[in-house]
Design a protein that fits this description.
Globin-like; single chain; about 0% strand; about 65% helix; mainly alpha
Amino acid sequence: MLTLLGKIAHFREPLSRQLSLSDTNVTPQISRCAKLNLSVKQKKLLRQSFNAMNSGGTFLKLMEKIFRRLETKCPDMRSIFLTTAFVNSLSRERQTPPLVKTEYDHCKCMVGIFERLIENLENINEQLTMIRHYGEKHAQMAESGFTGAMIEQFGEISVFVIGSQDVVKFNHETVKAWRLLLACVTDEMKVGFDRMSRINGRRNSCNPPSTVPSGN
């Protein structure tokens, strides 16, 4: 019989369906994440396990492992990051924050995101706006080849890698808590990405690139 984590590796359904809070899977993605309701015990287990994994930079290493596996599944990921960072650097002022250029930069960024999430578990739904905003920012990489499927791949790999850690895998309730949190993060990022991608698509259709007259 397949384990819960094993099912994620074998099925291609979105995480919102695989890791939903109910067995019906009929609620839209946005509403499902908005109903994320962790128990007091689950919040405690998330804090304990995250603090253990984040000690000594272990969680950063886990993020690096996740991104390496993601790059294996999506070989164009590295060039997408670099191309987008280069284009952005041409239009940024020196006073603006550092660019998230590489996989390592993304790993550090993700550690910061999870630190904030864990610190605010009592108001976890208020953090969904932040997660969705990060998803919207990824829409700028769509022209370089970034897709929503890559966000889903990130979520699936994250569930497997984090769920495989000793501090998580030996406690069923800890596994469940991380699955719910990661599913919500993944879905909200994809909601933001899809929304901004649609907006950008409409903008491009309303403002098609002008053609340059030929010299003939």
